[in-house]
Amino acid sequence: MIEIIGLEKSFNGQKVLSGINLRIEHGEIMAIIGRSGGGKSVLLKNIIGILKPDKGSIIIDGVDITKLRGREMDKTRQKLGVLFQGGALFDSMTAYENVAFPLKEKMKVSKKTLQEKVSKALEDVGLKGMEDKYPSEMSGGMRKRVALARTLITEPQIVLFDEPTTGLDPILLQSTHKLIRCTHETYGFTGIVISHEIPEIFDISDKVAFLYKGVIEEIGTPDEIRKSSNPMVRQFLTGSSEGPVELLCEKETRR
Amino acid sequence: MIKLLRILGGRALSLFKKMGHMLMFLLNSIYYICVPPFKFRLLLKQIRFFGNKSMIVILLTGSFTGMVMALQIYHTLSKFGSEALLGPAVALSLIRELGPVLSALMVTGRAGSALTAEIGIMRISEQIDALVSMALNPMRYLIVPNIVAAIIVFPLLAAIFDVIGIYGGYVIAVKLLGLSEGTYFSQIDTFVEWKDVRIGLYKSISFGVIVSWISCYKGYFTEETGFGAEGVSRATTDAVVMSSVLILIWDYFLGSVLL
User: Fold this and answer.
1) Which of A50, A78, A89 is facing B135, going by the closest CB pair?
2) Are A77 and B126 an interchain contact pair (Cβ–Cβ within 8 Å)?
3) Distance in angstroms (rounded) separating the CA atoms of residues B55 and B59
4) Taking the domains of chain B in order of start, what are their residue ranges?
5) Other C-beta atoms within 10 Å of B207: how many?
6) I want to staple B66 with a disulfide (CB 3.0 to 4.6 A). Which of A100, B26, B43, B165 is the partner?
């Protein structure tokens, strides 16, 4: 279980997270939706421990990770799998090497098992035969799928997806969502998915949280969010430029 | 006046903070150099990276430095009738001073800049964050292999620079200026001592630490110099300038201590 209590984070005096409270039950997939530049990725980086919050706690399986350092934090990170927004593939490695990397470094599996697992993972994301391609030779969508295979190969207990389907065509989007759902059913991980794919994201999430101006404005099941009377949520779901949600200004887009 | 003092004080504090941060980065790297697991394959890769990137430029600069020195020193020595000492003059200058310094400057320009850019790009494209999220220590994977590789490669490159330089001087002294081959080499044998070789070795090892430390630091904290590609480009320039300046300053201090 992940519990986030009163999480605050500022950059150069500008508050990005202003008191996030969120509870994600074991085995649940929580989608976080909200405007671009609204602090979703910052929230994720706080959960991974790459950023340290100014205030508040993040409790993973009973341990407040904001107080952990070094090896103790690494122990918690062993449970995590993260799919970064841009994929974050190692550009000096091929697709095969990228997917094999966490398994090789963390799990010490035999060469045969490694080959089987990596080939299967790449096949699952529709990239069979692309093992020898370098990230620079792949499209954005392909890179994202290799990154997804790398994230899921270690079968982590908690998976954080930062916009897993941005840049994919509708068919790949559906198949990636299906893959996330299938892997979730198989391994039962707890997931946090940051996404702008509305309404598609509702199909794979158990709960949806709407993040606006550094706070969770609304939280509920996909159906509850769909039927929400909150004008901000309504505006976000319909994508209307008219409403209480402020349009992006230049200062905020630089975040 | 108080405002000026405040600004100066603020700048001094920020400078000390930055220096402390850099020092902590180095100490952290030394800690991970000493603590297993060691990444030998990555170390071999980085040894190849430094050597491969810099070999041609070392051969070129080494030979021409030796040639220029032979030419210039010959004219000076001939005024005192001491042409016979040309060999040791070239060899001592190269082994004690120019070999380690110039080879380090060349590697800074070739491999040091590439290293900063590579680590900087890994930073901005979240590859370092990906390593952290996998519970793998970026210091162990990115920094330690580079520092150890530089400690191994710099003395080797300086030695190659010295040998090529001495032979470059030989070509000019013997083939062009008519000095006898025996005089050139036998005098080197007489005047160059192990102590001189040791001084050159200590210098190139310390230059290896300086270049790899600064290059890795600047790449690793590339966002301190700016954002995105511009940040990486600035970090690369900073790394080359800072490494070069530190090489020359450290060379003076080490030279005066070891003399």
Assistant:
1) A78
2) no
3) 6
4) 40-258
5) 29
6) B165
